[in-house]
């Protein structure tokens, strides 16, 4: 045993002697290649030799161009060493090597990326630290190395698919965090990220798709119309809008909603949503009742309508607008029945209406947004019967909405501070916004001809800084002047309009207790949570195979293969 320790001590001493020779030589260290190669040989030795060899190789690497390939290979072997302390030492030393040779950053970033398949949390932290340091040395080089690993394919062995999935997940999270932390990137770096992300999106799982979208939206270049349009086109490709919509397939529904939601922040008056709106009008709304929910808690029909309403604002010039607007109108009428009894709206108010206010808000908002591009849909003489029937339904909806609004205000009256923060009162506040929106939209559509001027914030969205509902009106009175408010009037049974409907009717009394589904409860609104909650439910693990998105879901694992070991970039 003593002889063995003596041998180890002698080997370590020889390494220090070689180090001294190279350190003393300074800029002429390249003249002593034999000493440098002794470091390479030490990577086959004991623990102490390996740790010293890692440090010394990285220290003098730049002076020996002819031995660099062998040195890189030796470091890769240390990164795969069975001893975790040796692996961590090699990872820690790599940034020192790259400071002297920035052109090697991409190669080492690729190697470090592959090491992220480890289960050792300390090792993962040291790899992240090394990659962070490499960013400050050569940012584009790090991106090249990371995307090389993300796009890597190879021979697949047992268990490798799970390891590669873990590596991709950790790399994407790292990229998103780093890009957000760094702030403004150089234009060539952002362009490179865009180009490589397009390739990556050809074969991703659902979670990877979401991460890539988050990465791209964080880029400074997304402030330009051209870049936002490119991102929308990338999402359109992922959404597979050239394929039929399978309402009975939860994965198909899930994919479409994720894609639309990813593209929604990009839409504006210059970046249009017409491809998604057209697809939903043609393929989704006609079969909305058949759409399958991935779980019992999700009101998937309402989620679809919310998503549709959010993108209807920026359709731009759309083909077949009359046909598609008619589809939206028909869907709206399904949720806006005429008064349930013959005669006037006032008489109908004494019965129990079956109204889904949440769905009405979504569809009425979408119709209002799209209808402003085709005002003749209701206003033309040929559509007079359509308008007449629609106004009766609007009157019935307005009356029911106003009654529910009154009851909500009574329930909220005198409550402030902590009382308004209870779950029940939060729901009431959101419901109040919903009924207010419907009332305002009805008033706009009740104009003769129907108007499309009012602007509202959908009830489930955060209130805009200018929280007041605004309406464009050239004849608006000056500040401080009295306004002449024209109330919504209701047709009587003889076809005449009454100026004071309150005198001719008995107020409708909603069912006892909280607003029932028949009366359009505000709870009905909350049966379908906002899309943020919908995203996080974790639907069925696979999206048609691995992802359901273009590439991975349809043809299985990319290229039918993935690499397995830690690093497969060894020199031949």
From TrEMBL:
Pfam families: API5. Residues 561-572 have a biased composition (Polar residues). Residues 472-521, 545-572 are annotated as: Disordered. Residues 547-557 have a biased composition (Basic residues). It comes from the Eukaryota. GO terms for biological process: apoptotic process; negative regulation of apoptotic process. One of its GO terms (molecular function) is RNA binding. GO terms for cellular component: nucleus. Keywords: Apoptosis. Gene3D superfamilies: Leucine-rich Repeat Variant. Belongs to the API5 family. This is Apoptosis inhibitor 5. It comes from Elysia crispata (lettuce slug).
């Amino acid at each position: 045993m003593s002889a063995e320790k003596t041998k180890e001590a002698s080997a370590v001493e020889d390494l220090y002697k070689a180090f001294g020779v190279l350190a003393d030589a300074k800029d002429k260290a390249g003249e002593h290649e034999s000493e440098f190669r002794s470091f390479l040989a030490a990577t086959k030795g004991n623990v102490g030799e390996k740790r010293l060899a890692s440090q010394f190789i990285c220290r003098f690497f730049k002076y020996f161009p002819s031995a660099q390939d062998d040195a890189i290979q030796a470091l890769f072997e240390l990164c795969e060493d069975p001893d975790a302390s040796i692996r961590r030492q090699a990872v820690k030393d790599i940034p020192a090597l790259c400071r002297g040779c920035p052109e090697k950053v991409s190669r080492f970033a690729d190697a470090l990326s592959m090491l992220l398949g480890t289960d050792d949390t300390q090792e993962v932290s040291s790899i992240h630290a090394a990659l962070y340091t490499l960013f400050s040395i050569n940012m584009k080089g790090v991106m090249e190395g990371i995307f090389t690993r993300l796009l890597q394919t190879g021979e697949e062995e047992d268990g490798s698919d799970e390891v590669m999935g873990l590596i991709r997940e950790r790399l994407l999270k790292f990229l998103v965090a780093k890009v957000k932390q760094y702030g403004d990137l150089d234009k060539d770096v952002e362009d490179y990220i865009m180009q490589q992300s397009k390739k990556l999106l050809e074969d991703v799982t659902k979670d990877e798709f979401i991460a890539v979208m988050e990465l791209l939206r964080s880029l400074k270049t997304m402030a330009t119309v051209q870049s936002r349009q490119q991102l929308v086109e990338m999402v359109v490709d992922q959404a597979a809008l050239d394929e039929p919509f399978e309402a009975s397939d939860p994965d198909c529904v899930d994919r479409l909603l994720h894609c639309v939601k990813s593209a929604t922040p990009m839409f504006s008056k210059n970046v249009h949503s017409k491809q998604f709106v057209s697809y939903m009008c043609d393929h989704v709304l006609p079969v909305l009742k058949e759409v399958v929910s991935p779980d019992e808690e999700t009101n998937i029909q309402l989620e679809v309508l919310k998503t549709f309403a959010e993108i209807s604002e920026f359709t731009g010039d759309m083909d077949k607008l009359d046909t598609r607007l008619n589809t939206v109108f028909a869907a709206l009428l399904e949720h806006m029945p005429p008064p349930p009894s013959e005669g006037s709206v006032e008489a109908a108010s004494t019965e129990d209406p079956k109204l889904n206010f949440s769905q009405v808000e979504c569809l009425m908002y979408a119709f209002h947004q799209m209808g402003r591009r085709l005002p003749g849909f209701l206003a033309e003489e040929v559509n007079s019967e359509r308008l007449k029937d629609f106004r009766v339904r609007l009157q019935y909806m307005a009356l029911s909405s106003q009654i529910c609004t009154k009851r909500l205000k009574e329930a909220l009256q005198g409550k402030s501070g902590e009382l308004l923060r209870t779950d029940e009162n939060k729901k009431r506040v959101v419901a109040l916004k919903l009924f207010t929106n419907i009332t305002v939209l009805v008033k706009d559509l009740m104009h003769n001809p129907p108007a499309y001027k009012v602007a509202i914030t959908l009830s489930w969205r955060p209130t805009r800084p200018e929280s007041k509902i605004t309406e464009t009106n050239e004849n608006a009175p000056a500040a401080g002047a009295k306004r002449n408010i024209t109330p919504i009037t209701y047709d009587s049974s003889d076809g005449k309009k009454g100026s004071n409907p309150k005198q001719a009717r008995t107020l409708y009394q909603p069912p006892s207790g909280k607003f029932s589904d028949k009366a359009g409860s505000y709870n009905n609104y909350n049966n379908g949570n906002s899309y943020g909650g919908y995203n996080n439910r974790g639907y069925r693990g696979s999206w048609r195979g691995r992802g359901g998105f273009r590439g991975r879901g349809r043809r299985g694992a990319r290229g039918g293969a993935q690499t397995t070991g830690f690093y497969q970039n060894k020199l031949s």
